[in-house]
Input
Amino acid sequence: MHQLRNDITDPDMAAKRCPKCGSTNPRYFTHCVECGAKLEEGAKKVGNTLAYVKMGLILCLAVVIIVYIVLPVYQHSVTIGKNASEAISAGQTLPPRIESSLNRPVGNSDLQITMNSARNGDNTFNSNRFFLVSVTLKNVRSTGNITVYSNDFTLVDTDGNSYSPYGIGSKVLYDLGPSQQVSGAEMIFVIPQKASVKEILFTFPGTSVLAGNRPVVAFVV
Output
């Protein structure tokens, strides 16, 4: 009790007097030591102290997350991106590219594709226009099917923008049986009015012999 009295008389430890009995209390006390009345000033300061402690803990946690999680992930991403960039520069991930033209069959021992025509459509859609492409697909295998999807085709304009067709004819895909041929299957591309078509790309499907390389045929329009 004697030590407590010394603390109370210390100016640095003193708070406001008790509103009920007038006794002086240490600043961090929430209730008067003499009468037990609540000391509002002390409670407020304790609350402020707890808020500072919580803020400090949050900052420490944020630092730990940045140092041990964010930075390692970022460094890993940079490394992966650098490796991918180097691989692309070295030509390791780019598929073989074959350039062709209209009415010239291109293929391998599995699949043959011919682009019969490429022209602007008569209809427009809002600020866009239709571009129509007709192709012939042939499975040259004697056994086994080959599936060709509409997203194996891509239209590229002179600005480098790419567009996918709305199906092949009325289908999303063609599952070609042995020696089966589909002639004049039409694809519709919707492109901006001012777009200038550069080429139509076809990526050989994964069911063909060359699936490992997935070569790309560029039909120059």
Summary: Confidence is low (pLDDT under 50) at residues 1-12, 76-85, 87-92. The chain has two helices and 13 strands. The two ends are 98 Å apart (CA to CA).
